[in-house]
Amino acid sequence: MPTQLRLSLFLFGVMMACPVLNPVQASQRPNILWITTEDMSPRLGCYGDETVPTPNIDRFAKDGIRYTRAFGVYGTCSPNRHALITGMYPNETGGMAQRVTKRTAALSKITDPELLAIPVYEATPPAGVKCFSEHLRAAGYYCTNNVKTDYQFATPITAWDESSDEAHWRNRPSKETPFFAVFNFMGTHESRIFEQTSPRVVDPAKVTLPPYYPDRPTMRRDVARHYDNIASLDQFVANRLSELEEAGLSDNTIVFFFSDHGDGLPRMKRWVYDSGIRVPLIVRFPDGHRAGTVDGELISFIDFAPTVLSLLDLDIPEYMQGQAFLGSKRGEPRNYIYACRDRMDPAPETIRAVRDKRFKYIRNYRPDLPYIGYIPYRDQQEIMQEFHRLIAEGSLGPDQWQFTTTKKPLEELYDTDNDPHEIRNLAGDPQYFEKLAELRQAHEQWNQEVNDLGQMPESEMLKVIWPPLGKQPTTAAPEITISANVVTITSPTDGASIAYRIGRKIKEDTPWKLYSKPFEISKNEQIEAQAIRLGWKKSKVVRGR
Q1: 184 forms bridges with which residues in the sheet?
Q2: At a CB cut-off of 8 Å and minimum separation 6, what does 514 contact?
Q3: Could you tell me which residues are beta bridge partners of residue 74?
Q4: Which of 174, 232, 464, 518 stands the most exposed, by the fewest C-beta atoms within 10 Å?
Q5: Beta carbons of 29 and 327 less than 8 angstroms apart
């Protein structure tokens, strides 16, 4: 049977809810490739923005499904990556503040006692929660990540076969081994706008500024720089797709392309407006399934992990809070997506949002704070320095009110069809009271369902995720049993994952494998094991013999 026909029949079976496959059948499953980029809203030709040529991504979109309502859970990377890798909302696991695992340079320079008291910790999901790539590894997939992690907890050695700037699906043990691979492009990151990092492609005079930006040369120049970086992204995407084609794997690989959140520009990144959370998302199937179609279904980052498992017809763990939007376990279309903003570096904040296909509701739990806050990293951008000067001069206009106000309204409501930049707050308009009440109720129901930890000080939150004293626990050492050369490894810590490595002589670079069931070992081989529970300190390494 020809390869293309065989794959088409397989994918048809997946879509029609075929029975669960065993790991030994993994070679019959398609590969999955994620091509991700940083800090970019849908500024692409295929999304109607012709400012910079993106022919390769546009061509890719014609072969795939282009989603127009895909959203991050946060307007920044760390909480979003936590949601992507676990399938859980960060504000339930302690992963909501930007980069909780280390003290930033900004925090080291401040003198405010309240800010100095901000703890450093790891987000800690409930026992048994895994990086979703572990489920793929257990099913026989070779999983690689090139290269960013930033999951709000230490990256467990059980998550990836490889996670480095050398990681690649080509390194899998055999051509028959299916893979899940991630390649992340850093060139569109906020920091790449601090100075010119890509060849100049876009004329600053020809960029379109949002109404919340005054028309100043600095604004135009930095927006043009962002577009220049997107031109470099287009080539990166082309290279990743060419690698598949040259290896003869395009007809057996499902490809995702998306950004980790909105543009890395002021009033975009870190915010819960669409400018901060709406992302491009394109999915291409090898058999041309729904090629060239546009899908307006509401998609959240919380849905990505269950969707990958659904595409491979693997079980979706009950703890995952999203729903599959593709594959055999696809759920019903969403009515709402949810978004949050919490502390960003030293700037305290608590904002929650809910959005349907048209309207966005925002609840400001800290109306006493301004929108922009104190974020030294962001302020390195000259465009933000220009904003600070204009604020001091009182030169900004009514469409820039979110930069100038020192307080926030308790509630905001926006009609994103008629006001896509979200600057006309309708919360006080009687015409929209019914919609306001609907989305307010949706927010409050979700807030209860996720047990939102963002409503308490971080020092108190630690006592919830690390009870009873807020001190990080340590995963218990695994126990290795060898009987008739069959190895069984267990962990006394509930829900812990176990990694092991074997060899005649184990070295520092001996790769770790994920333990999922007993296996045989030869008499002259050594074995080491380590147990990991997400958010806890990893166990000590133990040796079987």
Answers
A1: 36
A2: 134, 137, 138, 158, 497, 498, 499
A3: 340
A4: 174
A5: no
Would you say 347 and 373 are in contact if contact means Cβ atoms under 8 Å apart? yes
**Model pLDDT for residues 498-542, shown as the tens digit of each residue:** 999 999 999 999 999 999 999 999 999 999 999 999 999 999 999
Distance CA 222, CA 220 (A): 6
Could you write out the DSSP letters of every residue in 27-77?
GGSPEEEEEEESS--S-SGGGT--SS--HHHHHHHHTSEEEEEEE-SBSSH
Nearest to 280, CA basis, from 253, 256, 254? 256
Cα 83–chain centre separation: 6
- In order of 45, 264, 298, the CA distances from 259 in angstroms are 15, 11, 16
Upper half-sphere CA count for residue 2 (Cβ side, 13 Å):
5
pLDDT for the residue 215: 97
Q: What is the dihedral of CA 375, 376, 380, 381, to 10 degrees?
A: 10
CA 183/CA 56 separation, integer angstroms:
16
Q: DSSP alpha helices (H): ranges in 55-148?
A: 55-62, 77-86, 90-93, 105-108, 113-116, 132-138
User: What share of the chain has pLDDT > 90, as a percent?
Assistant: 89
Q: Are 243 and 229 in contact (CB under 8 A)?
A: no
Per annotation, catalytic residue among 77, 131, 143, 340: 77
Rounded to whole angstroms, the Cα distance separating 413 from 430 reads 12
Residue with tokens 């230490």: 154
For residue 459, which amino acid is it? S
pLDDT in tens, 362-386: 999 999 999 999 898 899 999 999 9
Write the pLDDT tens digit of every residue in 268-300: 999 999 999 999 999 999 999 999 999 999 999
| Alpha-carbon span 280 to 299, nearest angstrom | 11
In DSSP terms, 529 is beta-bridged to 500, 542
pLDDT category, 185, cuts 50, 70, 90? very high
C-alpha–C-alpha distance, residues 453 and 92, integer Å: 6
For residue 542, give the 3-state DSSP assignment: strand
Q: Smallest Cα–Cα separation from 275: which of 116, 432, 435, 72?
A: 72
Tokens of 126: 């409930």
Please check whether residue 72 is in contact with residue 40, taking contact to mean a CB–CB distance below 8 angstroms. Answer: no
The answer to whether 410 and 367 have CB atoms below 8 angstroms apart is yes
Please give the Cα distance from 453 to 317 (Å, whole number): 22
Beta pairing partners, 351 = 341, 364
